[in-house]
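Sequence of ROK family transcriptional regulator (Streptomyces caniferus).
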Amino acid sequence: MNDRAALDLLVSQGPLTRTQIGELTGLSKPTASQLLARLEAAGLVRTTGNVTGRPGPSAQLYEIDPAVAHIAALAVDQLGITAAVADITGQVLGEERVDTDAVAEDAPNRTAQLVARAVDGALAKAGLGREELHGAVIGTPGALDPGTGRLRYAPHLPGWHSRALKEELAEVLGTPITIENDVNLAAVAEQHDGAAQDADDFVLVWADEGVGAAIVLEGRLLRGATGGAGEIGYMPLPGAPLSRGGDRSAAQADAGGGFQRLVGSPSVVELAREYGDPQVRTVAEALAHDEVRAEVARRLATGIAAVVAVVDPRLVVLSGEVAQAGGEALRALVEAEFTGLALPRPVLRLSDVDGPPILLGALRTALAEVRDAVFRTG
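Predicted 3D structure, token representation.
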């Protein structure tokens, strides 16, 4: 327990002296010295210079050895895969983007090929090989059903629906694989580095090409019996026809109804055209119109109210392309729509993550997993 406490401190605070580790853990100087000697002998920590500028002898600094382990984080979308490789401290060493058309649609094991190309490209930029990889987390639309092993709610990702997908990818990369819903990973990023750092109970609402939510209760993600908790894009709401058949294509799902049909990126652009601007091409252009922004805010508030009525979170974080394009003006309008409702009124914030949230969430998750494995066995 003492060893792990010291390792966690070195991860979170960077290089520390023996005295600092002792003070932060409450250990005596001899015990802290023995602890550091064990960790150094195990190859988990190394010395990294001395503290200077103080009276008396300089003190050695200790840090986690970055080469102890490396992880890969991947974010999947309809157009391709982005991969990042980092060391155990979280330092990103290489990134690679591979478009879906990089491998022919009829190629055998196409999904595995795309994933391997993305990871190998990132490893090459990091100066590493697959044998130095200790784990990978892949963020993808949809949800991996724990009962069947199949990816649900993501029919627009051909080749990703094998029952043995996780095992196939692990075999190709030669390392353990975790497949996680992309919006859940965006919530992990907000929890660690963004707008939800002070909240144990919050909902992240993702409005982009697709629409979904991540629900965090008592600091833990709620996944549901089949992994589908938070699939609010299919949620029936006034103003949109029912969405039937959860395994249809993305285009069919968008046209068919549900919350996604009201606030997804294509629907926001379509709304602006209906309001009289046929030249609109982007969500940002659409939300520059006051009447469009007001209508999208009403729609978002309606869907969020349904979630709030069931979950009662302390905080709701707005994320995805629609939230980014609408900015504070859209957030304030959504908040105003809650005025007078006979419902709890959660704090409403915009995403505050510096970087791509899904990839950052995958990175955070992969680091937590590999640290647990390495620090436990080191």
